[in-house]
């Protein structure tokens, strides 16, 4: 059973090259190709391919990510694989959040591209190695950030957490002292200990670190 494919790319040469790769390969069938977001929005629902190879930058107007966002919501069975020159983190995560299931670079060799289409059809999430590495790095950074925030929670006493929360609300030392029925000097000492424990130098850094921003 052939895997049915649609191609969306605004560059004629690249579109033709991708069309050739798909049409000349056994086990794959090209249903059609589009050169703009508008055309893709109309043609893809009619053609109902299993896989769409989607460029990100489609010239003026909406991007490939916008197309994925619109179509994936209405046609959840269609699988979208970004096929692009972009390697920056923001574009990768925008595309994956929009509903893309794979992300490969245009410089991918033809046989690797075909493998990626098959892998996607079989339930995988193919990504060029450079992209996969960025996803892993971002995941690790988020995890490290969450762990740092958790560590911050554990080093502060309940009273210090209470004071930091009031500082985050923009309250002054004298207002904190009045609301907690303690002296301003005691508030000052607590704040000094908070800075020391969190390894920060001011209120903004302390709030950001504590709340994991």
Automatic annotation (TrEMBL):
Modified sites of kind 4-aspartylphosphate: 55
Pfam families per UniProt: GerE, Response_reg
InterPro entries: CheY-like_superfamily, NreC/VraR/RcsB-like_REC, Sig_transdc_resp-reg_receiver, Tscrpt_reg_LuxR_C, WalR-like
Domain Response regulatory: 4-121
GO molecular function, one term: DNA binding
Domain HTH luxR-type as annotated: residue spans: 149-213
Stored SUPFAM superfamilies: CheY-like
GO BP field: phosphorelay signal transduction system; regulation of DNA-templated transcription
Keywords of the record: DNA-binding, Phosphoprotein
The protein's name: DNA-binding response regulator
